[in-house]
């Protein structure tokens, strides 16, 4: 078992096309020996966004701080602290910070 503080994990800028003012922390992943699932924390600055994209695997998101919108196949939906989001395989998605403070969320994905 490994236990550590999320803030002790270095944040890296997300350099994917379409990303703006967003950082990622790889909290639990292959380097920690995780064989099946990865946990990542994203921090999106006010006015920032993750890239709009789609992929063949599901993931789950839990909003830790701030507020924003989730771009979904059915349009934009508001998200805020405490919201849980399921992104199905093949769903187009993006997260945008529409608030005045940082938006932070956990994103859990299968190892692909």
Could you characterize the architecture of this molecule?
With 112 residues, this protein is mostly beta strands. It has a single domain, classed as Sandwich (Jelly Rolls). It contains no helices and nine strands. The strands form two sheets. Strands 1-2-3-9-4-7 form a six-stranded antiparallel β-sheet, with no helix packed on it. A hairpin with a 2-residue loop joins strand 5 and strand 6. The chain is globular and about 40 Å long. The mean pLDDT is 96.
Keywords for this structure?
globular; 112 residues; 9 strands; mainly beta; Jelly Rolls
Layout: helices, strands, pairs:
Blueprint: E1 12-13, E2 20-28, E3 37-49, E4 59-65, E5 67-72, E6 75-80, E7 84-87, E8 94-97, E9 103-110
Antiparallel strand pairs: 1-2, 2-3, 3-9, 4-7, 4-9, 5-6, 5-8
Low-confidence stretches: none
The CATH architecture is Sandwich
Please, how many helices? 0
Give the name of the CATH superfamily: Jelly Rolls
CATH topology: Jelly Rolls
Instruction: Estimate the strand proportion.
Output: over 45%
Radius of gyration, whole Å: 13 Å
- What does the main sheet amount to? 6 strands, antiparallel
3D shape: globular
Ends apart, CA distance between termini: 22 Å
Overall number of strands: 9
Within the largest sheet, what's the order of strands? 1-2-3-9-4-7
Helix content: under 10%
CATH class: Mainly Beta
* Overall pLDDT confidence: 96
Q: How many distinct folded domains?
A: 1
**Which structural category fits the helices and strands?**
mainly beta
């Amino acid at each position: 078992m490994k236990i550590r503080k999320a803030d002790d994990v270095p944040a890296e800028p997300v350099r994917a096309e379409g990303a703006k003012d967003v950082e990622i922390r790889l909290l639990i992943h292959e380097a920690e020996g995780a064989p099946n699932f990865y946990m990542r924390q994203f921090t999106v600055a006010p006015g920032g966004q993750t890239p709009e994209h789609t992929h063949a695997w599901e993931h789950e998101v839990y909003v830790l701080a701030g507020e924003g919108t989730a771009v979904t196949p059915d349009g934009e939906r508001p998200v805020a602290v405490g919201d849980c989001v399921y992104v199905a395989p093949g769903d187009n998605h993006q997260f945008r910070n529409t608030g005045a403070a940082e938006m932070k969320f956990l994103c859990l994905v299968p190892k692909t």
